[in-house]
Amino acid sequence: MDVVIRMLQALGIQALADRELAALSGGQRQLVSIAQALVREPRVLLLDEPTSALDLQNQFEVLDLLCQLAHERSMCVILAIHDINHALRFADHVVVLHQGRVEATGSPREVLAPGLMQKVYGVMTRLEYCSQGYPFLVVDRSVRDRAELSKAEEAAV
Questions:
Q1: How many domains in the chain?
Q2: Distance separating alpha carbons of residues 43 and 36, to the nearest angstrom
Q3: Strand runs (DSSP E) across the chain, as ranges?
Q4: How confident is the model at residue 151 (pLDDT cuts 50, 70, 90)?
Q5: 121 belongs to a structural domain
Q6: What does the mean pLDDT of the chain come to?
Q7: Around 39, how many Cα atoms within 13 Å sit in the side-chain half-sphere?
Q8: Which CATH number is 45's domain given?
Q9: What is the DSSP string of 110-126?
Q10: Are 17 and 8 spatial neighbours (Cβ–Cβ below 8 Å)?
Q11: Which end of the chain is more exposed for a tag (fewer CB within 10 A), N or C?
């Protein structure tokens, strides 16, 4: 039982311990699901968009906790995530999928480069670094040609 209480505290959800799952918000359910998975102390943890229903503070705290536990427990954490800046900040290794195949794999800073972002996501980007040295991706614009898009829309009418 101590491991459950520690995990609830680590995720800041100890107040939810006595509540029915059906009475929780989507974000609260997501945190409870993560806690349930982590208390089992898996060697491999597979998560699909674990931060999608969470506010910014909980997103950071969950990803930070997952990194900490992965290193402490020698646990492999595999997660699907669409937030490129979260991948840059927290991932040790990334795999970028595009059109059903692996487009690139490697360290986040090497893989999540402007050329790949343009090819896969259709946006012009640049990599910047915050005052603490963490990388973040700035999206400057879409590469979609607005004139071509307007022509396609007119042709569809």
A1: 1
A2: 14
A3: 44-48, 76-80, 94-98, 101-106, 123-129, 135-142
A4: low
A5: no
A6: 92
A7: 17
A8: 3.40.50.300
A9: HHS-HHHHHHHH-EEEE
A10: yes
A11: C
Phi then psi for residue 122, to 5 deg, are 70, 30
Local structure of 53: helix, strand or coil: coil
CA-CA distance, 118 to 42, in Å (whole number)? 36
Q: What is the mean pLDDT of residues 136-156?
A: 79
Residue 35 structure tokens: 């806690």
In a domain, 105, yes or no: no
Residue 156 DSSP class:
H
Q: Specify the range with the lowest mean pLDDT, choosing from 18-22, 31-35, 130-134.
A: 18-22
Domain residues for 22?
A: 1-81
Task: Note the pLDDT tens digit of each residue in 74-85.
Answer: 999 999 999 999
pTM: 0.83
- The per-residue pLDDT for range 39-98, each reduced to its tens digit, is 999 999 999 999 999 999 999 999 999 999 999 999 999 999 999 999 999 999 999 999
Give pLDDT, residue 104. Answer: 98
56, part of any domain: yes
Find out whether 37 and 43 touch, Cβ atoms under 8 Å. Answer: no
Q: Is residue 74 part of a domain?
A: yes
User: 80 pairs with which residues across the strands?
Assistant: 48
Residue 133 CB contacts under 8 Å (≥ 6 apart), including other chains: none
